[in-house]
Amino acid sequence: MSATLFTGGRLLDPTRDELLDGFEVLVVDGRIAEVSDRPIHDVAAQRIDLRGKTLMPGLIDCHVHVVSTTVDGWANTLAPSSLVALKAGRIMETILQRGFTTVRDCCGADLGLVMAIEQGVVDGPRLIISGKGLTQTGGHCDQRVRTDDRTQVMEERLGNLGRIVDGVDNCRLAAREELRKGAKFIKIMANGGVSSPTDPIHSIQYSREEIRAIVDEAENAGTYVSAHLYTDKAIRRAVECGVHSLEHCNLIEPETARMAAEAGCIAVPTLVAYEGLALEGERFGLSKEASAKIETVRSAGLRSLTIMQEAGLPMAFGSDLLGELQKYHSMEFEILARALPNAEIIRSATLVGAKLCRMEGEVGVIQPGAAADLLVVDGDPYADIACLAHDGAHMPAIMSRGRFVKNSLH
């Protein structure tokens, strides 16, 4: 039995807006065994004196693509799957070192990567996967330019984030296949995209009948559908069809945000993705046409945060960075802080993320029975959200499932 006792620090409970003094936390065999405002006596436990530092739950990112090893989608698809898998391992190790102990992969990662983490082959965050994203012909995950007449698009490659599926029956079958292969939710492309070559931002993708069929299959399996969405029209339509997780939402309007909140949806803004693409997208192979799309969604990002907050639409933390741009991961905290209170940002990366991952009480909290995913942070994130940024520079210790993956407290 392995045990660790954290003492002498301040506890960050994301259900409150202040740090709590005088609490001790005991971890036994990968789980939180006890949280107490009185001294915990366990002579066998390794004692960690936090000396005024902050102990908080591990962070959750609800929109990543760990197999996106380069901004150029075709180059990523063409790379051998073994190479992509090895690079994905490096990406996941880096994500964990930033304090993200759980991530939801919004298309691309497969069950093999989940198993690699669970078996300790690589150090990485807990991985919640959707399998391949479902896209219509000419949709957001269709990487073929207009002059490309290929019908085989190597959907079996690990580096290909999606699969092309058209028609109600085929959509049902594809959803069932992804669920059989280990997907915990289904991801669809229901709107135009920035990095895809033939679909303008305003394009509406998948028929209502196709979306409802996919939602039906997800619900039959006890899960939900997540959709790539930008425009207000596309978001409203997706909500009407039963989509639960609304990715991006840059161009959402107040009435639709209120409707989504009433339907019990959760939004996942990913503003750092557009900052990264604006800064370096063309250098890494993004076309000029795609770069022109970026400003449409980038300029509306902060407004969308305010709209969703005022509508009471819960938001989970997301990043959505591709390939080389994943180095900007922690910048999302800085961007969110331009429009949202720090306490809400913290909830988005803990409590709301746990709810979207269907892991409430397991992650995103410090309470008995929860997984021991814990961060030791210099400073008070409620006062300065930058404590959670800068690639984990302000996190002297990171514990994942009861094991230190970083510890400079000695």
TrEMBL record:
It comes from the Bacteria. Residues 54-392 form the Amidohydrolase-related domain. CDD domains: Met_dep_hydrolase_A (cd01299). Pfam families: Amidohydro_1. Signal peptide: none annotated. InterPro entries: Amidohydro-rel (IPR006680), Metal-dep_hydrolase_composite (IPR011059), Metal_Hydrolase (IPR032466), Metallo-dep_Hydrolase (IPR051781), OTAase-like (IPR057744). This is Imidazolonepropionase-like amidohydrolase. The lineage of its organism: Bacteria, Pseudomonadati, Pseudomonadota, Alphaproteobacteria, Hyphomicrobiales.
